[in-house]
């Protein structure tokens, strides 16, 4: 019995049916399209069984599956090592074409290269597309073709290029839904893929505060942020729709989206930044890396209310306000003299919006070791930050229940820590 000829669209960081470049192109194939998602054991094996991000992925896939069922199709969900899953799929179906949207992280590039080689040996054509960014890889470069390592000129070139084509084309995938493969695959429960519900949930995104974003974004007690970051990370929203909208709404908010692409370009062009300093001159710094101090930072018991409130918010919800992220990162690196890699790894474990490029980029920014980073002698004073951005202590009291009952003393004195950090950096920076 001959196998059915099909195309496959492979979902990864694009968990939506609307405005997806790869899906749009797949649905224009002459073969019926099987929509596929693979729960990759290479990633899942290192996660706790109640990881909230896996739950969010599962919920997002369930919504996609429900939409597909309404048109007589369904989502094929597999679990295992990605390479092994594809080997089995190629045995089960006569796969003529595979479509997917690009991912720029080092593991994803390695994975996709291996899968494309496998497809080629099977005489299956693979097509990949830019989808999670407006400009990718080498589209925004200096005149000599080299990547920008300073944000402002990158942003200026980005805006110049965007304005020349605005609005960016959006893709009407719905007009081709009839080409989805007609099937009824069983959709697995969260438990069937080896996970369980987490009390931590991803919040819906909210854009109603964007008009005055620049005036409110630094005040965590207001709770008037967009909550977009996990949705951008997993692609439940279209970056093209978002940028086309933000371009007319708020320049500061748009600039945050451009920062996202800047850090993605840095990660693609300089993959060493995942574990190493972008500025190798900082490799000689002698870090304290005290494990007990690190535990106090992780648990939010440093005695600095702004730091502790942020860490407790992170531990309880998977979120942390962006202004507070800068304060807690600076405290770990400069006050405690603990390497940025320790904090980056903890955030990677806890953040619902964990995105390697942004996480690494922002931690290296705080450490002074990254491209276009804060100077090493900038040391945030957590108490001044508290007075400026949470003067009435509303945010702090929300997360530190015992704050008014005689809160503990700071674990390290600010002036001493600042002087120690600056002296250690000066001594360690390689000439």
UniProtKB/TrEMBL annotation:
Keywords: Chromophore, FAD, Flavoprotein, Lyase. It comes from Flavobacterium sinopsychrotolerans. This is Deoxyribodipyrimidine photo-lyase. Belongs to the DNA photolyase family. The lineage of its organism: Bacteria, Pseudomonadati, Bacteroidota, Flavobacteriia, Flavobacteriales. The record marks 287, 340, 363 as: Electron transfer via tryptophanyl radical. The keyword Lyase applies. FAD binds at residues 213, 225-229, 253, 256-263, 353-355. GO terms for molecular function: deoxyribodipyrimidine photo-lyase activity; DNA binding; FAD binding. It comes from the Bacteria. Pfam families: DNA_photolyase (PF00875), FAD_binding_7 (PF03441). The keyword Lyase applies. InterPro entries: Crypto/Photolyase_FAD-like_sf, Crypto/Photolyase_N_sf, Cryptochr/Photolyase_FAD-bd, Cryptochrome/DNA_photolyase_1, DNA_photolyase_1_CS_C, DNA_photolyase_N, Rossmann-like_a/b/a_fold. One of its GO terms (biological process) is nucleobase-containing compound metabolic process. Residues 5-134 form the Photolyase/cryptochrome alpha/beta domain. Its cofactor is FAD; (6R)-5,10-methylene-5,6,7,8-tetrahydrofolate. Binds 1 FAD per subunit.
